[in-house]
């Protein structure tokens, strides 16, 4: 079977959706010797170039017109199945004779529209319903997102496959950069966008006089938060750019990890922290209860006092820290990119 895949995200970032595309495809291409792959991108993606069962097709075009150039090329190649792991536009416009599979990472645009970046929200509202009508199957990262998809769009349960994400292996993230960080600090890995609720964590850290390290981009609608961080540089360090291979060093250096997000379709950072042996406090919203299990202290992200109490308790209780390290590590071992890839490949071959 000839399978086309939009791999642009893998060239843009090695975390988030880009990390998902890269990790899943490396595993699939390594294990699948039956299917032929055409990997579409708008720039060279060296990480996926070493596999002899795939062809990387670089297409240069206007961002929107790029999708139609891909469709044209895939039809010319007599492609049979197209997998869209991050974008909805190609599956929305593919001819119905082509089998299409989409990954829906979250439904924040429909559940919490005020917390979503406006441009992305418009695109999802324009194309998600059409892509769902055209798609042969949908892949989601959690049971919670599966339930949301069925409830909001009446999408058939039998067409949905849950493929959880996974933390990177310790050998993959083995770098130990020289970090100019406080001796004891709270860590969070999140952009400053409203949905991540970093503002509540900043307030809690300042009230408790604890050092906070934020690893993540500036995000949208974050001007006031950026100003507060800048004014409180004594306690707050904001690192906007971090190589994925250095992330484990941050997790291992932190005293505790806190992730107070208001909604996640999966929520990889707390899982990465648990895999690295860092005690975790995490929001109980969206899929995060499912991801963390009993490996973290779960809090209501809309309750500032509950967040503050959890930080104070975990910070001062070494026995609780040790307990969460053990439970968190066990929980993290339940997830692997190989398993994610195997489930994804099963969907390809089933169709």
List the helices and strands and how they pair.
Elements: E1 2-6, H1 8-12, H2 16-31, E2 36-41, E3 54-58, H3 63-76, E4 81-84, H4 89-93, E5 99-103, H5 108-111, H6 118-134, E6 137-140, H7 143-153, E7 160-162, E8 186-189, H8 198-208, E9 212-215, H9 223-231, E10 236-239, H10 247-253, E11 256-259, H11 268-275, E12 280-283, H12 288-292, E13 297-299, H13 304-316, H14 318-332, H15 337-350
Parallel strand pairs: 1-2, 1-4, 2-3, 4-5, 5-6, 6-7, 8-9, 8-11, 9-10, 11-12, 12-13
Brief overview, please?
This protein is of the alpha/beta class and 351 residues long.
Structure commentary:
- The protein is an alpha/beta fold and 351 residues long.
- 44% of the residues lie in helices and 16% in strands.
- The protein is built from 15 helices and 13 strands.
- It has helices spanning 8-12, 16-31, 63-76, 89-93, 108-111, 118-134, 143-153, 198-208, 223-231, 247-253, 268-275, 288-292, 304-316, 318-332, 337-350, and strands at residues 2-6, 36-41, 54-58, 81-84, 99-103, 137-140, 160-162, 186-189, 212-215, 236-239, 256-259, 280-283, 297-299.
- The strands form two sheets. It has a seven-stranded parallel β-sheet, with helices on both faces.
- Helix 7 links the parallel strand 6 (137-140) and strand 7 (160-162).
- Helix 2 (16-31) crosses helix 15 (337-350) and helix 8 (198-208) crosses helix 13 (304-316).
- The longest helix has 17 residues, at 118-134.
- The radius of gyration is 21 Å and the shape is elongated.
- The mean pLDDT is 93.
